[in-house]
Amino acid sequence: MSESPPVKMSQTKHPWHIFYPLGGLLVLCLAWSVYWTIAFGAAREFVGIKRQSLAADGVALTCARESWGGFPFRFEFTCENPVLSYAQGNLTTHVQSTSVMALVQSYDLRHALVLVDGPTKLVTSAGSPSEISHERALISVGVNPDGQWELGSDVTDVQADGLFASASLRFFARQNEGRLDLAGNAEGLIIEGPDGTATAINAAEFTASTSAAMVTSNAPLAYAATTGESIVINSFRISHSAMKFDAQGNIRLDADRKLAGKLTTSTNDIEGLLDILAPIFRLKRKDRGAVNNLLNLVGNDPGSSAKKADIIAKNGEIYWGPFKLTDIRAID
């Protein structure tokens, strides 16, 4: 007799295996929630301690109403009608805005974004308030593992009454060991001069550097006036239509807190540059002719629209080549 083939035993299936991935996801979510809760509490405690420390140094932030949130992937702090106050000696400065929101990704605690809704008002105990209207401003603050920080800001539709207006403003600062690197640019700039005059500039930009102690000291202006620390202007450019203006040099505060220093300047179109400078410095037609004649005395070609000269600030006065532009007021 032939033997019959062996009968295969069917394996018992375990339908609950399909729940393993779901269970793993639930465990992961639970672990992340625990982490977020602990880190969120630590962040709130850190901010509270930092605010107390700054208040002891004369810097205080008050809010009409403040709230925290951001679960599950970030930490959010919202301050409505914020007032940032800074007291130094007999002078107190208040910066007021509509609202401020600070965001930090919960997986990257070294980088924060700050959103500021305007208008922003600056009030000092020594003078009348000034207001700056603007769209929502974006400020980025980061700290690398070595403790070096960097800050960047971007704001549009800026209007500072009596001073300037700009379609966009960008600013950047970075701590580089003991130095501070600075950069900024503006587009669609309008400078408001005396007697209601307005001067348009297509674009302006600069790069500079100075000592980090200029901003880390308790009294930056006093530090600058006492030490004579300079701000090195690596590049300063203005362009409007075909006119271009370039400058390099350094500026500082003297013992009387007045600007001092020298910038080496050049332009490819002296008449175009004077169109910009005339309303700002109240240059009359005869002054424009005097500027041209005096700049020719320092080695420029009388037949060329390109001119070079030094801007020198000293003893409370500013000169462009041999021509005096204006007097300098002390910075309080």
Q: Tell how many strands the DSSP assignment holds.
A: 20
Mean pLDDT: 88
**SSE string, helices as H and strands as E:** HEEEEEEEEEEEEEEHHEEEHHEEE
Number of helices: 5
> Percent of residues in beta strands?
over 45%
Low-confidence spans:
none
| Oligomeric state as shown | single chain
By secondary-structure content and strand pairing, the structural class works out as alpha+beta
What coarse outline follows from CA principal-axis ratios? elongated
Rg over CA atoms:
30 Å
Distance between the termini: 116 Å
Which bin fits the share of residues in helices? Answer: 10-25%
Largest sheet: 20 strands, antiparallel
Give your account of this protein's structure.
With 332 residues, this protein is an alpha+beta fold. It contains five helices and 20 strands. It has helices at residues 20-56, 213-216, 220-227, 270-281, 285-297, and strands at residues 59-62, 65-69, 74-80, 83-88, 91-96, 99-105, 111-117, 120-124, 130-133, 137-143, 149-160, 164-176, 179-192, 198-211, 231-240, 243-253, 259-267, 307-314, 317-320, 323-327. It has a 20-stranded antiparallel sheet that branches. A hairpin with a 5-residue loop joins strand 16 and strand 17. The protein is elongated and about 110 Å long. The chain starts with 19 loop residues before the first helix and ends in a 5-residue tail after the last strand.
Topology readout:
Elements: H1 20-56, E1 59-62, E2 65-69, E3 74-80, E4 83-88, E5 91-96, E6 99-105, E7 111-117, E8 120-124, E9 130-133, E10 137-143, E11 149-160, E12 164-176, E13 179-192, E14 198-211, H2 213-216, H3 220-227, E15 231-240, E16 243-253, E17 259-267, H4 270-281, H5 285-297, E18 307-314, E19 317-320, E20 323-327
Antiparallel strand pairs: 1-4, 2-3, 3-6, 4-5, 5-8, 6-7, 7-10, 8-9, 9-11, 10-11, 11-12, 12-13, 13-14, 14-15, 15-16, 16-17, 17-18, 18-19, 19-20
